[in-house]
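Ops channel
N.P.: pipeline sanity check, posting one input/output pair.
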């Protein structure tokens, strides 16, 4: 493993590991849900009620306020190299894969074909990244950070940060509810979805919450394990008994759940409530988890893992889910067990690929300050 940066906050890296594990789990469970399994649908809605919001809270937690003192050109350059460049790199990699594995992964694009690639690229630039759907998060994170550069100079105090978090959430929620910009059920996939800026407004509210938590040093200094354990239990129970209260206002079936890529939030109050409580629960869990090297290291490489999840999302999960539905009982424990095994196996298979990318092309996978054997550092 690579040495751990002493400046990093281990609790946040561990929380990131749990967050990316939930992404792998949720994307596999989604495939079983789409095969009309009610147990999978319930687990999908539970996980999706908070797991992507957690990423934005964690990103805000580690945001360096000193970066805002940089000129816009320098700030933009770093975000382009650490966000958009990895997106382009992984998109290029995933565009090659359909040459070898196409049929089940991209049935609507008819890959590999010139027309399929044309439509796929059009969707990727103006809508949803079709070749590696999970990479949408990188684009939205870039937009959130652009909003941050413009807005945070007016939100210096803790009180203003909390007020700003509420205002951005309200404005973003209303904006997406009224305009319904991205909705596959209504044919709205390609259009005004540039870098997911419409949803970045909503997510910036949660990013600000992360900044507030960092300023108050909650969970890094002020919470002992004696508090974190009952806090974890309480948060889990609250989400368990409230996540299904978030009903209505979801833009398309069968995803009767929070789906951030489509700005699908549900109820105005239950959505942020379960998202924040669930995120706090993961932070409590991270607080009591030993800083095992592999977990910390994988938490430090979540951008790579987010993109590598596309391998499983497009090519492996559908086949395994079909086998599981055809051969195993549809009960909740079985669905959970299969999902857990798939998550652990998928993450393990990604480890050598993370090593390769970090060793040879770190500049292309979100680490532009590093030197490598093929390229010198970009910054």
């Amino acid at each position: 493993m690579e040495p751990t940066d002493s400046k990093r906050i281990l609790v946040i890296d561990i929380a990131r590991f749990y967050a990316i594990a939930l992404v792998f789990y949720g994307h596999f469970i989604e495939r079983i849900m789409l095969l009309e399994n009610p147990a999978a649908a319930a687990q999908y809605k539970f996980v999706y009620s908070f797991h992507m919001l957690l990423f934005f809270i964690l990103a805000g937690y580690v945001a360096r306020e000193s970066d805002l003192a940089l000129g816009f050109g320098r700030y933009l350059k770093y975000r382009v190299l650490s966000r958009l460049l990895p997106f382009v790199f992984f998109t290029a990699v995933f565009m090659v894969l359909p040459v070898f594995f196409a049929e089940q992964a991209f049935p609507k694009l008819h890959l590999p074909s010139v027309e399929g690639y044309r439509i796929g690229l059009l969707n990727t630039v103006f809508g949803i990244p079709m070749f590696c759907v999970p990479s949408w998060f990188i684009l939205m994170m870039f937009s959130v950070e652009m909003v941050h550069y413009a807005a945070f100079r007016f939100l210096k105090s803790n009180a203003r940060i909390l007020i700003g978090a509420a205002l951005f959430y309200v404005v973003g929620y209303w904006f997406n509810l009224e305009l319904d910009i991205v909705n596959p059920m209504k044919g709205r996939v390609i259009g005004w979805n540039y870098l997911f800026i419409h949803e970045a407004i909503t997510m910036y509210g949660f990013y600000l919450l992360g900044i507030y938590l960092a300023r108050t040093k909650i969970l890094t200094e002020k919470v002992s394990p004696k508090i974190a354990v009952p806090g974890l239990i309480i948060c889990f129970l609250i989400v368990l008994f409230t996540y299904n209260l978030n009903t209505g206002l979801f833009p398309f079936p069968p995803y009767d759940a929070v789906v951030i890529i489509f700005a699908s939030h549900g109820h105005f109050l239950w959505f942020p409530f379960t998202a924040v409580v669930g995120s706090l629960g993961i932070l409590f869990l991270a607080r009591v988890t030993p800083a095992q090297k592999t977990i910390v290291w994988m938490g430090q490489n979540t951008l790579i893992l987010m993109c590598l999840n596309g391998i499983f999302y497009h090519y492996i999960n559908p086949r395994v889910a079909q086998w599981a539905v055809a051969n195993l009982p549809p009960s909740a424990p079985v669905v959970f067990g299969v999902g857990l095994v798939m998550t652990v196996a998928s993450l393990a298979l990604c480890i050598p690929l993370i090593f390769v990318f970090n060793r040879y092309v770190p500049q292309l996978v979100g680490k532009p300050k590093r030197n490598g054997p093929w390229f010198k550092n970009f910054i």
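N.P.: looks fine end to end. The radius of gyration is 20 Å.
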